[in-house]
Every structure is written in structure tokens, then in C-alpha cells.
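Teaching assistant here, posting this on the class forum so everyone can see the example we discussed in section. The complex has four components, and the goal was to see what a joint structure prediction looks like when all of them are supplied at once.
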Amino acid sequence: MAPPNKPSPAAPSPRAASAARASPAATLGMVAEAAGVSASTVSRILNGTAAVSDQKKQAVYDAIEKLGFVPNPVARGLAGGRTLSIGVVTQALDSPFYGSALSGIEHTLERRGYSALFVSGQWDAREEARCIEMLLARRVDGIIVLTGRLTDAALQEVAKTLPVVVTGRDLVADNLYALDFDNAEGARLATRHLLELGHRRIAFITGDPNHPDAVQRLAGYRSALQRAGLPVDDRLIEAGLFHEESGVVAMDRLLDRGAAFSAVFAANDQMAIGACLALYRRSLRVPTDCSVIGFDDLSMSSFCLPPLSTVRHPSHEMGRLAAEAMLRLLEGQRPDQRAPAPQVVVRESTAPAAADST
Amino acid sequence: MAPPNKPSPAAPSPRAASAARASPAATLGMVAEAAGVSASTVSRILNGTAAVSDQKKQAVYDAIEKLGFVPNPVARGLAGGRTLSIGVVTQALDSPFYGSALSGIEHTLERRGYSALFVSGQWDAREEARCIEMLLARRVDGIIVLTGRLTDAALQEVAKTLPVVVTGRDLVADNLYALDFDNAEGARLATRHLLELGHRRIAFITGDPNHPDAVQRLAGYRSALQRAGLPVDDRLIEAGLFHEESGVVAMDRLLDRGAAFSAVFAANDQMAIGACLALYRRSLRVPTDCSVIGFDDLSMSSFCLPPLSTVRHPSHEMGRLAAEAMLRLLEGQRPDQRAPAPQVVVRESTAPAAADST
DNA sequence: CTGAAAGCGCTTACAG
DNA sequence: CTGAAAGCGCTTACAG
């Protein structure tokens, strides 16, 4: 419909042609020409940057439609400084907990036109720092850090460059939002659940002591015991590394040293699952011989044998909330998302203590 | 050391300043100036595009060091057509199988300077197509598709634009590499393992019939039975959806209809785990009352109670191989990576059939 | 071996 | 309300 004003000045260069052998890929300039307006105008319409007459607007939309134009985010990123991408540093892509959080992030970001760049820090502060460098180099618009081992100071430094949201910390700083989860309270609840069932000697498998979650959960365990007027017996505490195998090792050690307990609380579900296997190997039944409770409520935990009691730490929702907080930061607003309160999920791995073990 | 030839023409613009409040971010131009060479020369050194005298080379490296210069991949992508990023379309970020594959991809790509853009197709062909559009718009250098529901034709179409590697298919096309895994053989092996244990009535829980993996595994099951001269009884086949819950539902149905069987083969570990729970609910013991074998060998499967027998489908390695194939395609070479042969992993969920059930 | 110049596809002051 | 122009930070023919 729009009359071709002049011959197209932009014959596809050999480079462009090889980059897109299929469709030559319409550019904003081509849209402008087809609609008989300037490139600036097309850009403004696309970004809602300025009011444009309805007439031109329609012409532009028609041209976009006809040419199948999709703005090039790379060029957009270079010119405008915004790439519509958010960096996400996680510990691992193959973790049941983090995987679910990533999926929560992806879903809420994508419906707002952002895409996520996932990089994993491998539980190592130096790696995490490298991830952040890389994300900075790729000019992401913001960075979400899932817990991790970076210092608060390092995070605040990053926040001087672009918006940051971090989970698992209690930290306030400019251009940064911390979405904290009450791990201590969660651990307290888990321990209390066991106490209420009549258990008095409750073992604890802690997570990696370098991980903030681990120390908070240990603190919660201790505090629940103390509130109940019970001693904290260090011989009942064994360290794991948050994965299944470390749970079996920890439980083996507990058992080998002849520690007497009628219940175990593992600082996460994966270690609880490992602990159950160690118990099984010795023909000890859960929960008859020993109750076990985990932490996180992974989706797989309801399929354990027996289904695992745990404390709910909604990973998918945590991811969603973190992403929403990032969106608010990007809009220049103060985020206000709050993590849900921890809550015990009672399934079948915990039972009242036998009369003789109380 | 390099004498400042002329006053810097590039005072940081207000935009650049706000985009990087912390460090002003050195550019290639600044490096060139500091080293007393042209931007072209710096670019060539960085890319090894042409021989450069050692003298200038050294000056440039010094300048890069001093300024802490990191090339901007966004600009690089715009100018050179290469973004050093690979799009990966997966089904879900929170799947134990795919998560592990993604991690294999990430590791091998990152050590070659590429980064991965993960997007998930949600088990939906239309979603997958959208993911690919998005990746194309972001100008990734190549796309890895983990199985998925796209037609072969659609994939070939994408391969006209950029290199594609896809898993779970047997497909040859230009600029595309299919890394296939022998699902049928794996299923045959699993079934044969059960047969060798003396089982004669073996139930099968298939995966989503729209998924190629599912149909191949079903075929393998059938073929093993036939080779053994046994009939295929459709009443012993029940469909699941590849997740745990569908495994319990399928097993419930099998049990409810009074089908007689002494062993079950589930088309993946997640459904096998679900099946075990259903059995447990009815006080049926694994493997005493019923043997169960899965497929995939997820890392969690060795922690099941009892530890699950399965066929090894090495997700992490599959990811690594797919990424390596992509790297070769990018180098203009023909990939030659082959998926490892399937292999039964015998653990404790399978046992000889009781005398009366053979 | 090395520069100057044009260009990648957009955005954004700057002027109407 | 709308254009022309400059610029984002690189790469790559094109000429020496």
C-alpha cells in the first residue's frame, strides 16, 4: 500500500545474508520506509517513548505486520543500554531446589518481555564473582543472585552498577533488594514438631557450614531445643553438604558413634533422603525406629518412601518473588515482596516417639 | 607509558555513566588510544583475525590490562554477527533429567567462551517455536534443542539460518546434527533383565505418547517380549506423563483392573518412583511382591528405597556431547559425537520372580 | 602489517 | 507530533 519512495538503500549485505539465510530479517529502517515515516518514529511507537499520531501509528503497525519485523534486542541493547535480559546466578542447574526456583524466575520474567541468563556458581565464591563479571559484560539489565557465597559488600558493589535482588540474606542497600526466608524459624518449627511427638533426643544433620542457610537452620534447631529446656548435645549434630550422599554419610557417622536418638532433622530434603537410605541399610524403619524430617519440601519429597515430613520452602514461588522484585527495581519502585512464612508439612516419616525412647 | 596523543574525544556520556556507575567500562577505542594503535588493530589482536607485529601486540595487551578492558559482547554481536551465545531449548528447568543435561551443556560451552541461553518449551510445540523465535531475535550463534515436539521439518528450517543440534532424533540434514540415544535398545535391555529374572508378566508404564522417547521405549518393550516369544498384553500397558504423580496413577489403574504381573517397567525413573509409592500404599513390597525398573538413571534413583534398577541414560553427558557437537558445527566441521550405548544398572528394586508367578 | 571508514540495527537528545 | 543526526562499541572489507 505505501508507495515505495525510493529504491531500497539497504540491499542485504553478504554478512547479513549468511546470518539469516532463511528470511532476510526486517529492520526498523525497512519498516520506517514501508510506512513512510522516519526510523525515530518507529522507534518511539515501539517503545511508547512519545505520543505519535494515530495515523502514522497505524501505518507503522501495518508495515511491521507485513514485514514480520521483530526488533533486534542486540542492537537495542547497544543503542539504548537496555538488553531486556536479567542475569541469574544460581549454584547449580541440576539442583532440585534451585531448578524449581529458576523455573519460577523464567516464567515471571518472560511474560514481561525479559529473558533470563542463567549461570551457575558451583558453590564457589570466586566462580560466582566470575559469573557476575560475565553478566556485566553482557550488559544485563539486572542481576538476581540465589543465595550464594558472595559477601554482602560484593553485592552492594554490584548494586552500584545495576539493580540486584538476592535471596537468603537480610541486607538492605541502595538499588538492592534482599528476599529473605526465615530459615531459623523453619528449623525451629521442624524441631518443635519432633518435640511435640515426644522425641527428646533429636539428631541434626546440618548443611555446609559456609552456607548461610545452614547456619540459620542450625540456630533454629538449637533455639527450639533450648526453649523446650533441653540440652544441645553436640554428639547429635553431624555435618553434611546438602546433597543426598552426604546425608547417608552423616547418618552413618551418627549411628556408628552409637549416639542415641529417636528422630533426625536434616537441614534439607536431599540429606534427609540420604539419611533414610542409611537407616534402611541397617534395617532401621522410618518412622517406627526413627522419625526423620527434612527441609525445603522438594516436589520429589512427597514421593519418598515413606513420604517425607518437611518444612515448606517454596522454591518456585521464591523464584517468582525474586523476579517480581527485580521488575519493580527496574521500574524504579521499591519492591515489597515478602517470602511466605515457613510451615511444617507433616507426612509419614515422622511419628510419635516410642514410650521407651522419650 | 603510552604518551597521550590527543585529548580523549570520548568523555563518558551521561547514559554510559548511569549504565555503569561503578567503573566507566573501558572500550576498545580507549585501549587503542592507550596503546597508540588503531581500533582495527586491537580488534584483530583480540580475534586473531590477522597477524600483528609483536610490538604492537604487547602494547595492546598492556593497555588492556591497565584499563581492565573486557570486550562488549553486545557490540560484538551487532558488528560481527556473532554473539558467542548458544540458545538451548529444553522442556523444563526444573526437571531432574533435563536439569542435569543443561548443566553438562553449560560446562562445556563456558570453557570455550560461549554462554548459554536457556529457554523452556513447557512440553508444547507452539511454546518451543516461540522459544526459537526469541533465540533467533537475540542472535544466538546456534541452537541446541533437547528432544522436544517440533517437527523435523521445522528443525531443518531453523538449520537454514544457523547451526542446530537436536537430541532424541534420528535425522540428518545440512547444518544440523542429531545426537540420538538408542531408547528402543535401552527398553529392550530393561525388559530382558526382567525376563532373565524369570518374570513373564511384565507391566509397562509408558510416557506421553506424543513424545518420541515414549514411543521408542514402548517399541523396545514390545520387541523384547516378542523376541522371548511372549505375547504383548495390552492390559499390562498403562500410559503416564513422565512425572512421578502419573506413575502412581498408572500403577493404581493397573492394580485396580486386577491385572496380574510380577514386575513393572516404567518408561522413566520418575514414573517408576511414583509406581513404587502406589505399591507401598497397598502394602506391596518392592521387589518381593513386584520388581520395578525405570529408565534414565537419575542421580536421585540410587537413593530410592529400595535403590532403583534402571537403564543408564547419562543426561549430563548427553548435554556435554550436544554442546561439543555444536562447537564443531560452529567451527564448520562435521560433528562425530555419539551417545553412549544404553546399559542396565541393576540395583535393588528388581529380583527373581517367585516360583508361583513365573 | 595497519588505518580510515563504513556499517551492524537500534535509541535519543536536538531541533523544529 | 516528527526528522536528521549522532552515537552505542565493535568488526570488516577496502586500501595501502
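For the discussion questions: Residues 183-314+344-357 of chain A form a domain with the Rossmann fold fold (CATH 3.40.50.2300). The two ends of chain A are 86 Å apart (CA to CA). Think about how each of these relates to the inputs above.
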